[in-house]
Write a structure and sequence with these properties.
By secondary structure, the chain is mainly β. It has strands at residues 2-7, 10-15, 18-28, 34-62, 66-89, 95-119, 124-144, 148-169, 174-193, 197-215, 219-234, 237-255, 258-269, 281-284, 287-289, 298-312, 315-327, 331-337, 342-348, 351-367, 372-387, 391-393, 396-406, 409-416, 420-423, 428-431, 435-443, 447-454, 462-469, 473-480, 487-494. The protein has a domain at 302-326 and 354-406 and 409-443 and 447-459 and 483-494. It is built from no helices and 31 strands.
């Protein structure tokens, strides 16, 4: 029997981080005539602190035909943040004031994970795995803008899974898998403050699947498929969806230097329970937020291709492409509310499709007897959403890494071009800031010392994260963050063993709790 114990802490305090938002609202007067209101929220000062304390314990038993693994974890997390700034209406008559936002979050939870594997006979094996997590959350937000908003939420969340698998190994190159899975999520949320609501959500997934694996050294085939029954209960409003899924992973190795890979998938993206709530909360004086209990799941098709070339141990090249299309995905929409004096942000399936993919390559060159390594990875992305929003985004991203090793010492330099992305729920284009660093380190079997200097020539503390436009609402979000500011990071790690250690690199870490369904 092997025992592992983990205890950690993460604590930080930050200042002047947050978002500035430039938005335009299209509202309507008593006669139904539309007019625009420019609402600009500009960050002034902010401070926040966060404390996390995870603890985990694992007992592992390994025998010739049996393996039993049980893990128990506990965690506590609390966050407090305050933010002040300027709120300006640039429509006539122009109006300027101040705003305040105070936030307090606290999470406490317990997690259990267990797996039991038994090798039977004649190539048959049987395993059962299960997990259970319980999380209690308090989430309080106070806003003083043009109106005062007090939004408090208490949530109890449970997530559990049970997997039962039967495996058959026919030969060294052939095997089959049969599996049944049950996954359940439950959330109980009580809102107070300006609005009082009680929400009860549950999602149950029942999965039946079979898989086949073949590998003879040249051909590799990994295929599985099955059926899922999904049952959702949103405060008494029930919905069922039954859908198939399939995965196919093919590899062909021409020789030790050339390999081709293909991955195909048909899957379903389930709508989140918070996106289907009937609760209506106030976000600001001009915006309310809610969900849509009639929101449907979206189907997805994936096709990925890759080619790897290894002419020698000094050079490696991998070219790849990825393609994904989602049909009638869940998106955010805006509609007039409160007699046209405000907007209501909700969800629907108002998009025909969302396409995203990329074409790229990654290469590594090793010189000076392996002491110098150069890596580069350029990627071209293509993204398009059509329907309620019609937006196309085709950015280019590149990453470069140079590392030199000398005995136990190493020096590393990295550069990443501005981060790119696409928020398909509103057709928003994302662009970050470029990132670079230089690192020096020393390591042996127990010690690992690393010093990193990040963005030492950068004098910007803000970046335009995204912008989008809809018929009734448009937004440009400017993120103020310390992630791109010049800084020096020092890490010192010492690993020590106590008792008999079977192996390294399989240590346990912090456990995660059940997902939240609080409306945000």
């Amino acid at each position: 029997m092997t025992y592992d114990f983990y205890a950690g802490t993460s604590n930080y305090k930050r200042r002047d981080e947050g978002n500035s938002i430039e938005s335009v609202y299209t509202l309507a007067d008593e006669n139904g005539d539309k007019y625009k209101v420019d609402r600009n929220l500009t960050l002034g000062n902010s401070k926040s602190k966060n404390n996390s304390y995870p603890v985990s314990f694992r007992a592992l038993y390994v025998a010739d035909k049996t393996q039993i693994n049980n893990t128990v974890g506990f965690f506590h997390n609390d966050y407090k943040g305050d933010e002040t700034g300027t709120l300006t209406y640039s429509s006539l008559p122009k109006e300027t004031g101040e705003y305040y936002t105070g936030s307090k979050f606290r999470n406490n939870g317990v997690v259990y994970e267990g797996s039991y594997f038994f090798a039977i006979r004649s190539g048959w094996s049987f395993d059962v795995s299960s997990s259970f997590s319980y999380t209690h959350r308090n989430r309080n937000t106070d806003k003083i803008e043009r109106v005062s908003i007090n939004r408090y939420a208490k949530e109890n969340a449970i997530d559990y899974r049970v997997n039962v698998s039967l495996n058959k190994q026919f030969s060294r190159s052939n095997s089959m898998l049969f599996r049944f899975k049950k996954h359940a999520r439950m959330n109980w949320i009580r809102y107070s403050g300006n609005y009082a609501y009680y929400d009860k959500f549950s999602q149950d997934f029942y999965t039946w699947m079979a898989g086949y694996n073949f590998n003879n050294g040249k051909w590799g085939v990994n295929a599985d498929g099955g059926l899922v029954w999904e049952h959702t209960n949103i405060s008494g409003l029930k919905n069922d969806d039954v859908y198939p899924f399939a995965h196919l992973n093919l590899t062909y190795t021409f020789n030790p230097k050339n390999r081709l890979g293909v991955f195909l998938q048909y899957a379903t993206f389930s709508a989140g329970v918070s996106e289907m709530t009937t609760t209506v909360l106030r976000e600001n004086e001009l915006m309310y937020i809610t969900g849509n209990p009639d929101l449907k799941n979206s189907r997805s098709v994936d096709a990925d291709f890759s080619y790897s070339f290894f002419p020698s141990n000094k050079f490696a090249l991998n070219a790849f492409s990825q393609f994904n299309v989602r049909f009638t995905p869940q998106v955010i929409d805006y509609r007039l509310y409160d007699g046209g004096k405000a907007l209501l942000r909700s969800w629907n399936n108002g998009v025909d499709y969302y396409i995203n993919g990329c074409v790229g390559a990654s290469s590594r060159l090793t010189l000076l007897d392996g002491n110098l390594q150069l890596s580069i990875s350029p990627v071209w992305y293509f993204m398009r959403v059509k329907g309620l929003y019609n937006v196309t985004h085709n950015p280019l991203h590149a990453w470069i890494d140079v590392t030199y090793y000398w005995c136990n010492l190493y020096c590393q330099a990295q550069y990443s071009s501005p981060g790119v992305g696409f928020l398909s729920t509103v057709g928003a284009k994302y662009k970050g800031h470029d990132y670079y660093n230089v690192a020096f380190g020393w390591a042996n079997n127990n010690w690992n010392i690393r010093v990193v200097a990040n963005n030492f020539f950068n004098n910007k503390s803000s970046v335009i994260s995204w912008r989008y436009s809809t018929p009734l609402y448009s937004e440009k979000l400017i993120e103020h963050t310390s992630s791109y500011r010049p800084c020096i990071r020092v890490s010192l790690i010492y690993t020590f063993g106590y008792g008999k250690k079977v192996r390294r690199d399989n240590e346990i870490g912090a456990q995660e709790g059940a997902g939240s369904a609080i409306l945000k």
